[in-house]
Structure formats: C-alpha cells, structure tokens
C-alpha cells in the first residue's frame, strides 16, 4: 500500500515554488499547534550518535530503553569501546538487531578514539565515513548533537512529503535533497520533527486519518481522494 502511494505523483503542476513554500509554512503553523516540538535534553554528540544507531529499524520506546541501559553502565566513550561485546548485546537487546548494533557501537567508539580524538565529527562527509552511519543517522547527529540545520529523512518524512505533494521522489535520499530546496532553512529542524510525529500519530503508513487530519486541505493526496 505505502509503495503504491509513494509511486504516485500528487503534486499540483500549477503550483509555483513560491506558492509551495507558502503551503509548507501553513502546514508548519498548523502542525506546531497540534504537536509539541520535542526538546532532546541529552545533546552530547557521542550519545546522540549511539542512540541514533540503536534507533535504526525500531520504535522510539525501544531505543530509549536500550540507550538508557547502555549509558547507565558505561558512561564514557572509553568505557563503551572497551566493554565486552556480549555485555553490550544484553544491554541493547531492546533495540532489536542487537548483535549487529552492538558491534557497530563498539567499532564506531574505537574509531572515534583512534582517529578523531574521542570527538564526533560535526560535518556530514566525515560522519558518513563512520561504520553504520547513513545520511539519516548523520543528519540526526548534526541536528540533535550540534544543533546544525539538516533534514534527517526517515520513512515517515519520505512518505509524507510525497503524499503532501511537495516532492515526487523514490528514496529518502532524493527526498532530503528536494526538501532542502523548498523548505525554508529556519524550519528544517522543527518541521522535520513535526512530520515524524504527524506520521506516527495521524498519517500512519497503514491508517491515514484523512477525515480528521488538521491539514487535509493542504495535502495533495487528500485532495485527490
């Protein structure tokens, strides 16, 4: 169902870039009233990086449990790097794919110590060179660890931006590039978070609540029904 929806182009061919940007601003204003923009208290870049690695292909609550257990026992990058893999696996089991993730965490931690002086890079290119770090993870580190404008495109953001008709893309990577062109830079961080919450609570992959959606009149997919 989701793939079929995304494969369709819901954009308004007569909508100018200026009108599109204005529509995005209206969407932002409505969603910022419907959802509370989340503030992540732990902004340590290393912990953000590890938490984001743990978040891959799992729910937020599972990520929270796994990262809390890991950092309750191993509080520094050195402690994590030297921790027995078997112990890390037990601590992060809630996050799923725990064997793969525990090895990535160990590998990244040791690499940061050996090559980066225990410091997480603050630029996209270097972050992407780290094992297990893709564009979404790297952008999450930039946003939540360094407070730098970026758009971490997950499945929700990719799907929703296509349904809204503000992009017509096949992959999250393509969506990221297109969204950066049309979303005002000062809205990148907050709108991205609002889109994730919108996708988790209203425009769900298998249950889109178009009848009660607060932005249905601004959504190209909803208008196509």
Give structural attributes:
Endonuclease Iii, domain 2; Endonuclease III, domain 1; 225 residues; 2 strands; elongated; mainly alpha
Notes on the protein architecture:
Helices cover 61% and strands 2% of the residues. With 225 residues, it is mainly alpha-helical. It folds into two domains: 2-38 and 151-224, Orthogonal Bundle (Endonuclease Iii, domain 2), CATH 1.10.1670; 45-146, Endonuclease III, domain 1 (Orthogonal Bundle).
The level of helicity is 55-70%
CATH class of the largest domain: Mainly Alpha
Which structural class should the secondary elements be placed in?
mainly alpha
Query: DSSP helix count?
Result: 13
Along the chain, the helix and strand elements come as: HHHHHHHHHHHHEEH
CATH topology of the largest domain: Endonuclease Iii, domain 2
Overall, the morphology is elongated
How would a crystallographer describe the biggest sheet?
A: 2 strands, antiparallel
Strands, total number? 2
Tell me the β content. under 5%
Unreliable residue runs = none
What Rg do the Cα atoms give? 19 Å
Strand order of the largest sheet: 1-2
CATH superfamily of the largest domain: Helix-hairpin-Helix base-excision DNA repair enzymes (C-terminal)
Could you tell me how far the N terminus lies from the C terminus, measured between alpha carbons in angstroms? 15 Å
CATH architecture designation of the largest domain: Orthogonal Bundle
């Amino acid at each position: 169902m989701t793939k079929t929806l995304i494969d369709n182009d819901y954009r308004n061919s007569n909508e100018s870039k200026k009108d599109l940007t204005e529509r995005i601003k209206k969407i932002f204003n409505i969603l910022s009233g419907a959802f509370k923009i989340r503030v992540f208290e732990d902004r340590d870049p290393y912990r953000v990086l590890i938490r984001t690695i743990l978040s891959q292909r799992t729910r937020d609550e599972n990520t929270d449990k796994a990262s809390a257990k890991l950092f309750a026992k191993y509080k520094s990058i050195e402690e994590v790097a030297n921790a027995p893999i078997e112990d890390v696996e037990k601590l992060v089991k809630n996050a799923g794919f725990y064997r793969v993730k525990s090895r990535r965490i160990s590998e990244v931690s040791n690499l940061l110590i050996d090559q980066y002086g225990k410091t997480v890079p603050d630029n996209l290119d270097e972050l992407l060179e780290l094992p297990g770090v893709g564009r979404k993870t790297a952008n999450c580190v930039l946003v939540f660890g360094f407070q730098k404008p970026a758009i971490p495109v997950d499945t929700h953001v990719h799907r929703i931006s296509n349904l809204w008709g503000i992009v017509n893309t096949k992959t999250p990577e393509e969506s990221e590039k297109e969204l950066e062109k049309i979303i005002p830079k000062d809205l990148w961080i907050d709108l991205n978070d609002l889109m994730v919450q919108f996708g988790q609570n209203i425009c769900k992959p298998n249950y889109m609540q178009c009848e009660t959606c607060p932005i249905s009149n601004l959504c190209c997919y909803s208008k196509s029904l």
